[in-house]
C-alpha cells in the first residue's frame, strides 16, 4: 500500500488554488491509496487559508504559513520537514505539474529502485527568460562537472532523502544540492508539462537574475575560480606591459603620459574592490550562519 505526502509551496495562489484542489480531488478518486498534502504559504500577503479550510473535507492536508517570503526552495524544504510518509512528492501550485503524473514517478521509482526521481519534460512551458536562465546555469555547473540538466521541481523521493531538513530551519537557496547529496541513486521520468493556469508567473526577469546569482555565489565556486583565473591573467598581462614600458624607457628614454597611469590605477583598484566584495559576501554569510540570524520564522501551522 502506497503512503504518500505531497509538498506544495504557495505564493499568490488564491485564484488558482480552487482548480488545484479540484484536480487533487479528481486524482484522489482515481487511485487506490491515500495521500496527505502539506501546503506551505511563502509569506503571501493575501492568505489562501480560507480556501484550504473548505478543502479539509475533501482530503487531509496541513497548512503552514511562513512569516515572510523566503523563496520557493525554502518553502519546499519546510514542507519536507513535516513529511512522515515513506514517499514524498513535490509539485508547483500552478498546475503545470499534474497530480495524475505522480503515478508515473511512483512506477519509475519502484522499477529503478531509486531514492529520487525527477519528472522531466519533452517541452517546457516556461517563459523564454526562465528557459534561458536554466540553460546558462546548466552551462556554469557543467564547467564544474556537476550535471543539473534533468532536475525539476516535480520530484518524488523516499523519506531518507528529505530527512536532513527535519534538523534545520534555515533558508535554502538551491534545494537540489541537498537532495542529490542525500540520494544514493537518481533517475528521471518523462511527464507532461502543462501550460500555467491563471496569471503569469511571479518570477520576473530581475527575480530570476537574483535567484541565479545566489545559486552561483552560494552553491558553486564559479566566482572564486573566475577571480583566481582573472587575477592570474591580469598579473601576467601587467608583467609584460610593464616589461614593455621598461624597455621603452631604457632604449628610447620615453616619458609615458599621466592618463595611462591613472587608467591603470583605476583598473587595478576596480579589480581589488570586486574581489574584496565577493570574499566579503562569503564572510557575511558565514557570520550570519554562526550567529543563527537566518532562522525561518513560521507564522502559522495547522492540520486541516
Architecture overview:
The chain is of the alpha/beta class and 304 residues long. It has two domains: 3-127 and 148-202 and 297-303, Alpha-Beta Complex (Spore Coat Polysaccharide Biosynthesis Protein SpsA, Chain A), CATH 3.90.550.10; 222-290. The protein is 46% helix and 16% strand. The chain contains nine helices and eight strands. It has helices at 17-28, 49-54, 72-81, 102-112, 128-143, 175-182, 205-218, 222-252, 258-290; strands at residues 3-10, 34-41, 61-66, 87-90, 116-121, 155-158, 186-191, 298-303. The protein has an eight-stranded mixed β-sheet with strand order 7-5-6-4-1-2-3-8, with helices on both faces. The two termini are 24 Å apart. The model has no long low-confidence stretch (mean pLDDT 76).
**What is the total number of structural domains?**
2
Report on the biggest sheet.
Answer: 8 strands, mixed
Low-confidence stretches: none
| Spatial strand arrangement across the major sheet | 7-5-6-4-1-2-3-8
Amino acid at each position: 500500500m502506497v503512503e504518500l505526502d505531497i509538498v506544495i509551496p504557495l505564493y499568490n495562489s488564491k485564484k488558482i488554488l480552487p482548480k488545484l484542489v479540484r484536480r487533487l480531488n479528481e486524482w484522489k478518486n482515481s487511485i487506490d491509496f491515500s495521500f496527505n498534502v502539506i501546503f506551505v504559504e511563502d509569506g503571501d500577503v493575501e492568505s489562501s487559508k480560507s480556501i484550504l479550510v473548505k478543502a479539509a473535507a475533501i482530503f487531509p492536508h496541513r497548512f503552514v504559513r511562513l512569516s515572510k517570503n523566503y523563496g520557493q526552495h525554502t518553502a519546499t524544504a519546510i514542507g519536507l520537514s513535516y513529511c512522515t510518509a515513506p514517499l514524498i512528492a513535490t509539485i508547483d501550485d500552478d498546475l503545470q505539474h499534474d497530480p495524475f503524473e505522480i503515478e508515473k514517478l511512483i512506477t519509475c521509482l519502484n522499477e529503478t529502485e531509486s531514492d529520487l526521481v525527477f519528472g522531466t519534460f519533452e517541452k517546457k512551458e516556461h517563459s523564454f527568460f526562465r528557459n534561458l536562465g536554466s540553460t546558462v546555469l546548466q552551462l556554469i555547473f557543467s564547467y564544474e562537472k556537476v550535471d543539473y540538466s534533468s532536475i525539476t521541481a516535480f520530484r518524488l523521493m523516499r523519506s531518507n532523502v528529505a530527512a536532513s531538513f527535519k534538523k534545520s530551519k534555515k533558508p535554502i537557496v538551491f534545494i537540489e544540492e541537498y537532495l542529490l547529496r542525500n540520494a544514493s541513486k537518481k533517475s528521471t521520468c518523462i511527464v507532461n508539462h502543462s501550460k500555467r493556469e491563471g496569471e503569469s508567473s511571479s518570477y520576473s526577469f530581475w527575480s530570476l537574475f537574483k535567484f541565479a546569482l545566489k545559486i552561483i555565489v552560494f552553491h558553486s565556486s564559479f566566482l572564486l575560480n573566475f577571480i583566481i583565473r582573472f587575477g592570474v591573467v591580469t598579473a601576467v598581462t601587467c608583467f609584460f606591459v610593464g616589461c614593455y614600458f621598461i624597455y621603452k624607457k631604457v632604449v628610447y628614454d620615453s616619458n609615458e603620459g599621466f592618463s595611462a597611469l591613472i587608467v591603470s590605477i583605476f583598473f587595478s583598484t576596480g579589480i581589488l574592490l570586486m574581489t574584496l566584495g565577493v570574499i566579503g559576501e562569503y564572510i557575511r554569510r558565514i557570520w550570519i550562519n554562526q550567529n543563527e540570524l537566518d532562522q525561518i520564522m513560521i507564522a502559522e501551522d495547522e492540520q486541516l
